[in-house]
Amino acid sequence: MRPKNGFILIIGALLLFGSATFGSTKAKSIKIGAVFDITGPTGDVGWHYADGVRDYFKWLNASGGIHDVKIRLEWKDCQYDIPQTLSAYEKFVKDDHVKAIIGWGTGDSEALRTKIIKDKIPYISASFAQNLVWMPGNWNFIPATTYADHVRTVLKYINNLWKENRPLRVALIYNDSEYGRAVLAPAKRYAKAHGIKIVDEEKVSLRCLDATPQMRHLKQKKADYAYIQETVIATATILKDAGKLGLTTLFTGNFWGTERKLAELAGPAAEGYIGVMPFAIWSDRNVPGIQLLKKINRKYHPRVQFREPPYVAGWVNAAIMTEAVRKALGMVNNDPNQVTGTLIKKGFESIKDFNIEGLVTPVSYSAKDHRGAKDVKLVIIKKGRLTAITGWIKTPPVPKAEMEGKE
Length: 407
Description:
This protein is of the alpha/beta class.
């Protein structure tokens, strides 16, 4: 099967720099860099994402590439470490001469924000931080909506469910990083505007194995709901410890903490957890993209029976990157030697209604909006499985202050 609209994949070793080589050294190719966390603090979700990116490029190249131009992926496991990512970036740009980069976390993506502008390197990452997409002249892109969009969507949803004759009481649980803090200001602004009370803020580390002190404090605050901005390990710890203490708080959370694995780790305490989902999930039977990914996964990873949402996110990011490169190639008569970062950026900003086989809603960018797909679903853990509780829904409007980079 030939890829539609520029789908792709690759595989590689696990820890250090990896690259895919494709036949003769004379083969036409374009180098793309990639930063992953496979073995670090967010490796619990990062390894799925890394496989999704690499598998897409492997699949793309095996299918003929982009008009016979292959993508050569240079990647490194940077373990969610900003200095390692900065070092990898320097190698990618100065030694490998990559034209664009697929990144990972919020902190490292923000640390590179000015450098990629200076070096003219388009950057699409796994972070959905709003700071990455609204800054004037920025070169960052994200595949979907932002963390700010997500927390607003959840707050709107639970506030609409609320029937008691008093304000809804909500707690925010986050890790003390750029990623964790990304939801604080937008959540507080939305809550204030809509009569919701933010009654507590609790810090929980990404690899936390005991959140009992934080949950005791949360219990005293009598929050009706809590929104968790963590990855799966910390989210599972929070849910288990809340269950042990008998909290009646209902828990919600962001994309990176929302997996079927959460039910395995937290057991019955995960039942009823609601999460934001910008992508299709593995159990979506009628999504063509999921059916394709299942075939790809069986072929390249026969021992991996199930894929979590970050695998889909990695595939989507690689597909979007490929579409931007395809458009850049079209500007120079498919000559890879003439493709530049500037042309790839123009390619990104010219993507309109890009269909990735239902893995997300159609992706569009502009010079003013570097978010991709604009819709999300909400899912719930029910009987140990992720199940959608909404269809695709629009996220609430973005405040002007956020669009101006003042959030």
